[in-house]
Amino acid sequence: MGGVAAGAASRASADLEVAMPRTGGERRRTTIVEEAIRQFGTEGYAGATLDSIAQSVGVRKQTILYYFPNKDALLEACL
Length: 79
Fold this sequence. Notes:
5 helices
């Protein structure tokens, strides 16, 4: 009987992978870049912080660092 349950679990897992594409990451990255452009434009490079950008977007600083290894990389993405 374990084989039947294991087979069903494998099919369910495979169905989830097809049914739930990961599109939020690109959208989140774009939102971060848009907010960074706004803050770099109003506050300047020195005045804009990863913390303030993260707070404005509604994510943690670690989320920004997942997409961009540092503030310089974020600035380059804005250019």
